[in-house]
Amino acid sequence: MSAATQQSTGIKKSLFDRGDKRRASQEVGESTANQAKGASKWGVLAVLIILTVYAVGPLWWLIVSVTKNKQQLYTTNGLWFAESFNLFKNLHDLFTYQDGIYGQWLWNTIWISLVCSAGVTIITVTAGYGLAKYKFHTRGLIMGMIIISFLIPGTLLTVPSFILFNKVGLYDTWWVMLLPGMFTPMNVYLAKVYAEGSVPTELMEAARVDGAGEYRIFLQISSRLLVTPAATIFLLSFVGNWNSFMWPMIFLKDYHKWTVMLGLQSWIARGTDSQYDLTILVLTGAFISMIPVVLLMIALQRYWKSGVTVGSLK
Amino acid sequence: MSNAKSAPATPQSPKRGGHISWRTLEALKGASFTWPFLAGFIFFVIIPVAMALQVSLYSKQKSGLGLGEATTKFVGMQNFVEAVKDVTFWTGLGRVALYAIIVVPLTQLLSMAIALLIDASSKRMASRFRIFLLLPYMTPGIVATTIWIYLYSPSVGPLTPFFKMFGLNVNFFSSGMVWGSIGQMAIWGGLGFNMLIMYGSLQAIPGEIIEAARLDGASELRIAVSIKVPYMLTSVALTTMLNIIATVQLFDQPFLFRSVSPQTITKDFTPAMMIYNQAFQVGNLNYATALSIVLAVIMGIASAIIYKLQNREN
């Protein structure tokens, strides 16, 4: 069995490393070509710097702005810090405004994203695995439905879902945020494609000969070979949940259940308040809300990049 | 490899059928991996789609003077006839289509140009800037829109005074400018990411081909135009067209812009906004559903045409 496992990791490795040889051969040729072109190197550097300034500039403005007080925000240079540092005061205002509603929204966003992503990962990876490795009657039918469902735009589902959820009492409950996102056909497809390539049938046969049942084979062997698509699906769905806006806006009425994005929009729409200038609160809130997802994406770059590539093979 | 071996571990023991072969049982267990997904898929996708088809054939009507309970009546295709004749809907669709046809290819072409430039002279440089270039892509859409709304804002943002220095009086929210403002934001969000994807696909071009072209005396520009661009174009064309179709559903960004500039961004600005407005502000769920079906059909036809063209090319 261990030999078979090794073989499968070999397959996985070769999936990831393809192109390395090409790259290596290219670099040999490249190094000579490069030396001749010092001038264009500086040109490229200039283009990259301009692009980086363009990409980071707005975020820099945000970081600078959250350290200012209301007056400084309107009067001082937007791209540099003012004399006094107000970040902590702004954070204090943000988390105490309206009895700390922002903290509530942040917490809602965190746990909803975590639970929904965990659910979608388990459900779609097992489904993709089942479709990839077993032959059963309804298999073709399910695959057909999955492919066809790619053509259904999200907008089409919103209004009938609203009617349906009202009927069965899901409207304005946590379930409406947790459940519908757990059954994305695209993820099943992604998991299936990956499982076909990375779970060897011989390995499963060997385990069967050793007396393992199908569920045990999945839990102890196959699931370990499916860590990459699982992590990809988890990450993409976490980010999708975190950023989602239209769905919670339609299905959550009680503002204590709202997510951060929805809350921020409501503050922007309100604009001013007798006590606080909401502009500073919106900016501080926006800044805090992007930190977790940016950190997560930086930490797990490998996974979402591979996910994007697999998705584009569709 | 006998019945006895797999039977004890199974919850569905083959009692009633007399004899079920272990292969059948294996297939059944394999199928059971897809059951959780299937249950959710039926409830959250198939039933809503079926409901959409049904709901769109009915209409809510108030009796005579608008007093008393509203009754729901079967009206057949009437909602669709109305939708086809609805000038507001088609204007919104045209607006979004025009926007997508300009912004999506522009983003792709700009990213391609930058990727080619970097590829032509240095292999390592782009990776040093990678994290910064990816930051806009990682920024949640609502946060990005919030930042740009304030950057564009005449009272807080640094852009209005910046353009004033050159004697330009720019109002980013005016009806002539607002699409440009939203488009610029989309380019900001996608440029760095697309550039890195394209840079990655350039790495996959076999080094020998480029070497051969160099030996034949082709200039770098010639290599880029005759080898690299055609190589990328096939994959880029498909993603470009699919992105254009997806953009038809544009909602979050213009909706947020509407909170600060309701005069220029009307409630029916994009098809998705119009559907939202019809369903949840006006309360005409039936008509909103009919509109979303029309939108889905248009998107479906467009995707089908693109896949046809793509397959013919191959």
UniProtKB/TrEMBL annotation, chain A:
Going by the entry's taxonomy, the superkingdom of the source organism is recorded as Bacteria
The record's similarity note reads: Belongs to the binding-protein-dependent transport system permease family.
PANTHER family reported for this sequence: ABC TRANSPORTER PERMEASE PROTEIN MG189-RELATED, ABC TRANSPORTER PERMEASE PROTEIN MG189-RELATED-RELATED
Task: Point out the coiled-coil segments of this chain.
Answer: none
Database matches in PROSITE patterns: ABC_TM1
What Gene Ontology biological process does one annotation of this record name?
A: transmembrane transport
Which UniProt keywords are present, listed alphabetically?
Answer: Cell membrane, Membrane, Transmembrane, Transmembrane helix, Transport
**Cellular localisation:** Cell membrane
Task: State where it is primarily located.
Answer: membrane
**TM region(s), chain numbering:** 42-63, 105-129, 141-163, 175-195, 225-245, 280-300
GO cellular component terms, A-Z: plasma membrane
User: Membrane topology for this entry?
Assistant: Multi-pass membrane protein
For this entry, the protein name equals ABC transporter permease subunit
Domain ABC transmembrane type-1 span(s) in chain numbering: 106-299
TrEMBL record, chain B:
Q: Which residues form the ABC transmembrane type-1 domain?
A: 93-306
GO cellular component term, pick one:
plasma membrane
Kindly report the protein's main subcellular placement as a broad class: membrane
Residues crossing the lipid bilayer are 33-57, 96-119, 131-152, 172-193, 231-251, 287-307
Tell me what topology the record assigns in the membrane: Multi-pass membrane protein
Could you tell me which Pfam families the record lists for this protein? Answer: BPD_transp_1
Q: Which UniProt keywords apply?
A: Cell membrane, Membrane, Transmembrane, Transmembrane helix, Transport
Compartments, as annotated in UniProt: Cell membrane
- Supply the SUPFAM superfamilies for this chain: MetI-like (SSF161098)
In terms of InterPro entries, this protein maps to:
ABC_transporter_permease, MetI-like, MetI-like_sf
Q: From the UniProt record, give one GO term of the biological process aspect.
A: transmembrane transport
Q: Which family does it belong to?
A: Belongs to the binding-protein-dependent transport system permease family.
The name this protein goes by in its record = ABC transporter permease subunit
Q: What is the species of this protein?
A: Bifidobacterium aerophilum
